[in-house]
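SUBJECT: protein chain
CONTENTS: sequence, structure tokens:
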Amino acid sequence: MAEKVKVMIRDEQKTVRVPAGVRLLIRRCCHAVLQMEAFSGSAQISVSFVDNAGIRELNRIHRNIDAETDVLSFPLGENGVYDQDPETGAYLLGDIVISVQKAMSQAEEYGHSLEREIGFLTVHSMLHLLGYDHVDGGLAAVRMREKEEQVLSQLGLKRNGSYYMDEE
């Protein structure tokens, strides 16, 4: 099990006000994925909130796709091997970039809360950081979706269910 998990969250957009509790939710999602995957050692993850223009630019630069998307994952490891922070010994898993603007429109489209959508995008990206992929479809995509739903259910973020969280 992960010893210590550091999740650094930056809000780099002014389009959408990020609701209270979302930062805690993201941290809980990261912890839950690492726990489910029996990740051992300490881990460090960076999460950034951007708007549609920001994620479109990143998509264009890094993937040659001139379109906005909901989330981008930038894994720093390969085949379960990660660089370590020399000061803390934490494994550097990578970066997650979420378009809060896109997440908000998708939450509306799918009929669930923004929190559920951001939780899903975080869990989805964490699985990418740990080496899971769904691009080719098939069994890999099914396995990834099952793991996503397992973590989201465990956190009380079931599909089309409402989610309330007490502030700590």
